[in-house]
Amino acid sequence: MKKQTSQADVSLNRSLGLWSALALVVGTIIGVGIFVRQAAVINDAGSAKAALFAWLAGGLLTLAAGLTIAEIASQIPSTGGLYAYMEAIYNKFWGFLSGWMQIIVYGPAMIAALGSYLAILVLDFFHLPSFWTLPIALGSIILVGILNIFPNRYGGAFAIITTICKLVPVAALIIFGLFFGHADAFSQSVGDLHTTAGGFGVAMLATLFAFDGWILVANLGGEIKNPKKMLPRAISLGIMLVMVIYLLVSYGVLKSIGPAKIHELGTTAIPYIANQDFGVWGGKALSIGIIISIIGCMNGKIMTFPRIMYAMAEEKQLPGSKWLSYLNPKTRTPVFAIIATLIIAGLMICFTNPDRISELCIFTVYCFYVMAFVGVFLLRKRNPNQVRVFSVPLFPFTPIVAILGSLFVIISEITSDPIGVLVSLSIVAIGIPVYYFKVMRPRQATK
C-alpha cells in the first residue's frame, strides 16, 4: 500500500533561486506606478530637474530601507517577512498586527487595485464595453491565483518571464527618449501652469508608491534556497536595478514630450508617447507590455501575501487556522490561504475602491517599517557576537536614513490625509480583539 503523506510531513518547497527571487523583487515593484506617476511627480516637483531628483531620492530611501531589511532577513530567514521580523524582534502582538494589516486589507487591496487597472487597460485595448470591467478584473486575479496553486517553481518562472517582457516597453521608452527625444525638458517648468504643487517632499512621496512592494519577496523566506544569502542579494540588487530603470524612464519621458505636456496629459502621458513615437502598432505593443507588467506585479503579490496568512495560521493566530495553514501534499503550496486572499480581493473589486484602500494602508505599512528598521539596532545589541552573513553597509547611517525617510512619509500622510490615517489605524485596531480571542484567551485557558 502507498503510504499517505500526513500534513505534518508536508513543508514549503525550498526551490526558488536567486534569479526567481530577483525577478520577484523587480516584478513586484514595477507594476503600473512608473507608467502613471510621471505627471503626479512633475506636478508636485515643478520642474524636470526636481522631478528627477525626487525619483532619485525615493530610490535612495527605498535602497536604504531594503539594505536595512536585508540584514534582518539574513538573521531571520522565515516565511512571513515583516510579520516574522516584528514577532522575532518585538513580540507576538506586534507581529500579529503587522500581519493582520497585510493579509486582511493591504495585500488584497493591492491585488484588487492591479486587477481593476488591468481591466481598464484591456477594455481600452480591445475597445470592449464597460460591462466587461468586473469580469476581467475578477478573472485576472483568479487565473493568476490558479497558477500559484501549482508548485512555486511555476510562479517563479512566470515572474522571470513577465519581468523580461515588462522590460521591453521600459527599454523602448528609455532608448527613444535618450536618442530621439527632442523636447528641451530641462529648461521648462510647470509652475506657471498650476498653483497647487505640493513641493519636492510630496513629489518624493509620490515616487515611493511606485517603489512599493520591494519587501514582499521576504515573505517567501521558507521557499528560497539559502535565504540568508539569497534574500539580501535579491532585495539590494533588485531595488538598485529598479532605481536605475525608473530614473532612465523618467528622463526618457521628459526628453520625449517635456514637463508641460506631461502635466497636460496626466496619466495618459505614456500612451500618448507610445502613439506619437511608435505609431499605432507601436502604441499597441507598448500597451501589451504594460498589461504584462501589471500581470507580473499581480503574480508577485498573489505569490507572497498568502504566505503571511499561512505563517500566521501555522501559529494558530487566525480564525480557520487549520485550513489556512494547509499545504497541498503534491504542490506544497498554501492552497486555502491563496483562495482566502483572492476572495477578499474579489470582494474589494466588487464593493470598494481598492486603489484608495491600498493608499490608506501605506501609512500603517510605514509605521511597521520604522519599527523594523529600529530592529536592526536591537538585534545587534542583543547578539553582539553573532556572525552576520550580510551587514547593512555604512551602519548606522543607512538604517538612520531609512528611519528618517519613513518618518517623513508618516508625517506627510498625517498632514495631507488625517481622515485616511484614522481609517488606517481603525483597520489595524480591528485586529486587537482577534488577537485576544485567538492568541491571548487560549493561553489564559491553559494556565
Automatic annotation (TrEMBL):
Gene3D superfamilies: Amino acid/polyamine transporter I (1.20.1740.10)
Assigned keywords, A-Z: Membrane, Transmembrane, Transmembrane helix
Transmembrane segments: 21-40, 52-73, 93-120, 132-150, 157-180, 200-222, 234-254, 285-310, 331-351, 357-379, 391-412, 418-437
GO molecular function: L-amino acid transmembrane transporter activity
The keyword rRNA-binding is assigned to this record: no
Primary site of residence: membrane
GO terms for cellular component: membrane
Keyword Nucleotidyltransferase belongs to the record: no
Membrane topology designation: Multi-pass membrane protein
Subcellular location: Membrane
Protein name per the record: Amino acid permease
Native organism: Fructilactobacillus cliffordii
Organism lineage: Bacteria, Bacillati, Bacillota, Bacilli, Lactobacillales
